Amino acid sequence: MPVELPVPIAFRLPEGWLPARPGSFDPGVAFAAVHPQPDAGFAANITVDGGFPAQTATLAELADLSAQRLGVIAGSVVVADRREAGSEDAPALTQRLTFTAVTGDTRRELVQSQVYLSLPDTRDPQKRAVVRLALTATTAQHDSVVGDFRDFVRSVRPDAGEEG
After folding, report:
1. Pure H helices in the chain
2. Is the pLDDT score of 10 beyond 90?
3. What DSSP element (H or E) covers 37?
4. 8 A C-beta contact, residue 164 and residue 15
5. pTM of the prediction?
6. Angle CA(113)–CA(118)–CA(122) in degrees, nearest 5?
7. Contact 138, 131 (CB under 8 A)
8. Which of 62, 108, 153, 157 has the fewest CB atoms found within 10 Å of its own CB?
9. Which residues 6+ apart lie within 8 Å of 156 measured at CB?
10. What is the per-residue pLDDT across 15-24, written as a single tens digit (0 to 9) for each?
């Protein structure tokens, strides 16, 4: 069952991507979507999760923890790229991880592009929530789907729950 994000967001799924069945991803995931054309049996996927980290935690520290957690499952994880983005009021961080993991019965070379967004809590603006957006794809397919992921990231915005 998907978890609820710490702050409501709205987004537009890239054309052709399909929402994943609830329960088919990590229980900490609030939303997941899959690419309709798998690469050698692995479907590229976009996941969304988040939480309220310690107020002193930096986005870089959260990204480090994410890479460490992935390393427990996948073994060797390499931070191939990391950049700060956003603004002082809305900081963000992007990172690209490369790793090898077994999915099904097959060992695969994978890439995970992550974006961390720091957003104010809607109930207490002094608190900040962090939402993580991630694209996981095979090394061979990553470059062909990363543009869709960028479009997805650009579409993410706070959702005040107003119909418009």
Report:
1. 59-74, 139-155
2. yes
3. none
4. no
5. 0.92
6. 135
7. no
8. 157
9. 9, 10, 11, 117, 131, 133
10. 999 999 877 7
Residue type, 143: D
Q: What one-letter code names the amino acid at 51?
A: G
How far apart CA 72 and CA 99 sit, in angstroms, is 11
The verdict on residue 164 lying in a domain is: no
User: Total domain count for the chain?
Assistant: 1
Q: Is residue 4 part of a domain?
A: no
Q: What confidence category does residue 26 fall into, taking pLDDT thresholds of 50, 70 and 90?
A: confident
Q: What is the CATH number of the domain that holds 23?
A: 3.40.1000.10
Longest Cα–Cα distance in the chain:
47
| Tens digit of each residue's pLDDT (9 = 90 or more) over 29-85 | 999 999 999 998 999 999 999 999 998 999 999 999 999 999 998 878 999 999 999
* 93: in domain: yes
- Domain assignment of residue 127, given as a range: 9-158
Residue with tokens 């996948």: 74
Position 44: which residue type? A
Q: Tell me which DSSP letter residue 58 carries.
A: -
Q: How confident is the model at residue 163 (pLDDT cuts 50, 70, 90)?
A: very low
Residue 33 sits at φ, ψ, to 5 deg, of -140, 155
Contact 128, 118 (CB under 8 A): yes
